[in-house]
Known about the structure:
6-stranded antiparallel sheet; alpha+beta; 3-stranded antiparallel sheet; about 290 residues
Amino acid sequence: xxxxxxxxxxxxxxxxxxxxxxxxxxxxxxxxxxxxxxxxxxxxxxxxxxxxxxxxxxxxxxxxxxxxxxxxxxxxxxxxxxxxxxxxxxxxxxxxxxxxxxxxxxxxxxxxxxxxxxxxxxxxxxxxxxxxxxxxxxxxxxxxxxxxxxxxxxxxxxxxxxxxxxxxxxxxxxxxxxxxxxxxxxxxxxxxxxxxxxxxxxxxxxxxxxxxxxxxxxxxxxxxxxxxxxxxxxxxxxxxxxxxxxxxxxxxxxxxxxxxxxxxxxxxxxxxxxxxxxxxxxxxxxxxxxxx
Length: 292
């Protein structure tokens, strides 16, 4: 990995402002065509391997039919093409520009949504939520702390609505409750539009949902979630020794290799090589409150 490739993609003032104001922003052309083709090929293979199977995993869907949504966890380490996205130059600098250097990959998933037929009650079908489950019950404050964020890498066309689009309420990351009069779509609900190769980065607290896919193709998107290192990961990352030997230092940090419980709250320099890179190459690129 050429870590110098991060420098042209450090988070900008406009991106930072959009993230704080809206809770998300889109990164155009985050993945180039060649690598995008590789990602699609791997996604299709995993889709075909895991459709019509039962018992994908303890936290995945059980018995899947060919028309069911596939939600496959822990995908970041299932193929080298997916692993490259872990600290992808066009997106990862935005992550540490928001969360700072004491971070990890805490979750990754491939979501494949097949086409569905329109229904009259589609406007009520959204499963509106904030990410991270019980954090939203057990953490105090209004709004609650950010703690984590996600990147969604688009593998298929979402430039028009109705394609299984990621749907958000801009600015809703600043409130703990979402008003849904009559149980329908909340005011301000926005379907994010993006083309293949684009990426969306969003605050875990933003209220969001997936929408029905009326297109004639599967909607495919990869989600990579990053959090502070003291949060217990949601993925069960299992790596072989041979696989681990090929990782660079920052990948090892992000995947929790060599981390101890103490190092997650009081890390030494060897525990967090990302910190050293930032201090040497991009001082001032992370929030001052997180830089120490």
